[in-house]
Prior knowledge:
Elements: E1 2-8, E2 15-18, E3 23-27, H1 37-49, E4 56-62, E5 65-70
Parallel strand pairs: 1-3
Antiparallel strand pairs: 1-5, 2-3, 4-5
Amino acid sequence: xxxxxxxxxxxxxxxxxxxxxxxxxxxxxxxxxxxxxxxxxxxxxxxxxxxxxxxxxxxxxxxxxxxxxxx
Length: 71
């Protein structure tokens, strides 16, 4: 399953909003330049979808929009 995620970095909350058709808006504590931002994003997405972290794979990084493959 392909999942499209729009990321808002440096937020004061950490949350996931669903827009249907496997599209999500995710707010992260981390800044865009932070090395842990992708780890935080993957962990939050796997928790929200209820799948193990090793099944969440980044396929394409288009800046603030990312495409994940969920196996």
